[in-house]
Write a structure and sequence with these properties.
The chain is an all-alpha fold. It is built from five helices and no strands. It is globular.
Length: 79
């Protein structure tokens, strides 16, 4: 997982989007749920594998998510 300025900017941008959409509580809930899902070592390894296409990664995430998340959270997850 990258460390430094870029993730910090991504986090700030996500917070700004959540506030602007007036869905801060929903984002908080969705991000916690996504964090739990992406902490699975097998899934994380596949998501970090450069040989797996973005489309395949998106499909894996879509199959793994059992509830609908805010579209902004989903977009952030796809990055």
């Amino acid at each position: 997982m990258p460390k430094g300025a870029v993730p910090g900017r991504d986090a700030e941008a996500a917070l700004t989007l959540a506030r602007a959409s007036k869905n801060l509580d929903r984002w908080r809930t969705d991000l916690r749920m996504v964090s739990g899902i992406t902490s699975d070592p097998t899934l994380r390894a596949r998501l970090e594998d450069p040989n797996v296409s973005s489309a395949e990664k998106h499909a894996m995430l879509d199959r793994t998510l059992t509830v609908q998340v805010d579209p902004g959270v989903l977009h952030l997850l796809y990055l």
